[in-house]
Amino acid sequence: MDTIFDKIISKTIPAKIVLETPRLLAFHDINPQAPVHILVIPKKKAVSMDELREWDDATVGQFFKGIAEVARSVGLNENGYRVVLNTNLHGCQSVNYVHAHILGGHQLSGSFA
Ligand code: AMP
Fold this sequence. Notes:
- This protein is an alpha+beta fold.
- It contains two helices and five strands, in the order αβββαββ.
- The chain has helices at residues 4-9, 57-73; strands at 17-20, 24-28, 36-42, 81-84, 100-104.
- A hairpin with a 3-residue loop joins strand 1 (17-20) and strand 2.
- It starts with a helix and ends in a 9-residue tail after the last strand.
- The model has no long low-confidence stretch (mean pLDDT 97).
- Adenosine monophosphate binds at residues 4, 15, 27, 29-31, 39, 86, 92-95.
- Residues 4, 15, 27, 29-31, 39, 86, 92-95 line the site of adenosine monophosphate.
């Protein structure tokens, strides 16, 4: 079933795109939780972080390198940032298409839960 992120990739619905490559799409979160809040999704679909187990190592690596490249492209590498992959029920994943949140632009709190 198509999720909202499938529709953003196919450009059926708009998004504020930060970076697009043949392998990934990065766009601003519609409900930002920090001054910079970007979502990074691979164009190859996986439902969640858990499903990345089934990917070959190179493709997983490309996704994670892509996240770092997106963060660098908006200058977050200098002061730092947080990457979050909410996964399934207890992780409060609300969109069933794997996505990494990049949060930054100010001092984040040290708490996780
Ligand atoms: P999660 O709770 O980890 O599944 O995160 C889903 C994220 O997608 C939330 O932070 C939402 O604000 C964000 N989101 C939902 N719809 C859109 C949209 N159309 N464009 C950008 N971000 C969205």
